[in-house]
């Protein structure tokens, strides 16, 4: 059932500006470092830490039998991940006596790959949570509240409780969220060289339609570049046609949204707004602005920009996205967010690690999760790699990536505590202030704290996801007239039980609102 208690607490927590600023405090073995947020806010760089300063293991290492843990993350695969594993394993020996196997899932539908692992009952340990609420409701993840209390006391003491509440379904904690920004926004990351070359005023962009004149210029003057590059997993569905709404079901593949004005749940593919948006995309396709094979192209956005095939990427943005995309595209990038930053249950669930119900070593997995939230040495090994091989250290806290080093796909937003991260030389050194400003300017969802329990409609949800996947790429690629496709899609969605899912979400939402 939806969370009915503690909503007021959630709201007050989310409005706190200090996003777990304890992560910048220096000695991460101190479980009371959240007591002085003003002092920690003065720090602007990641802590330089030696192994002796990092979080201690929960149990005596010599009493633990060595185990191997598997970790599944998005991105890559990096060609030199094995050397990073070796370095991490040497470090973990005296911490928790475990080795780690990093499994990188390329952005070629990683959620589908994990779903197959879950459905087959494959044994694995830790996984980045795609389709979190659906998988939690069907028992894919182990409950973590007791493990967190026993093996990750430092993390529990420092993490904003709002994160843990967002990861709680039916009274059980099923993931540990990354300590990062509270709210999310969607926007663009533009190749700075192209922006400067044509004098584009990217700050003037306030809605999706505003990029059209820029697309026209690129079409006319850059024949080898796609004005608007799409692939089979990234399209303009990132940009909602309904700014005053919220996705409550925990999956981008279930076509339900909540209208803030009416507090009613609706089918997002059965409105005039979505038809207008899809007709715009169709117009851009016919003008030659969108690559012809967008529905099937498997080139990742970062690689398209890196190779000059594209000049911008799009998706969720955060306070340090300039650094993130500059690193991934290996060229200077400029960020422009398009939608207001919003704090909601889904944004708090944005990046989380779960422990599989099939894990043979859930206790050791939680020890590892505790370390990546509290130990700068391990965290930077995982996110930056090996000093001298994958990056160069410019000072105690600032680093520079080595081009084509073979390891650069594990981004800080995926795991742990982002404020433990080294600063990239191109990154704004005011990292903590950027996070404070981002959170201060965030808009809080009117239904924050609501978590949908999909138990009663699991069979319908599976069918709806399959139907949405069948049609979404074609609709958003612009390759065909959207009107007949939408009509066919909506007919299939209705037959598959969409109304039952909408009614179930609405029933839980009404109960949630009544209890506030």
TrEMBL record:
Pfam families: DUF3502, SBP_bac_8. InterPro entries: Bact_solute-bd_prot1, DUF3502, SBP. SUPFAM superfamilies: Periplasmic binding protein-like II. Keywords: Signal. Residues 32-61 are annotated as: Disordered. The keyword Signal applies. Residues 32-59 have a biased composition (Low complexity). Residues 1-26 form the signal peptide. Residues 446-514 form the DUF3502 domain. This is DUF3502 domain-containing protein. The lineage of its organism: Bacteria, Bacillati, Bacillota, Bacilli, Bacillales.
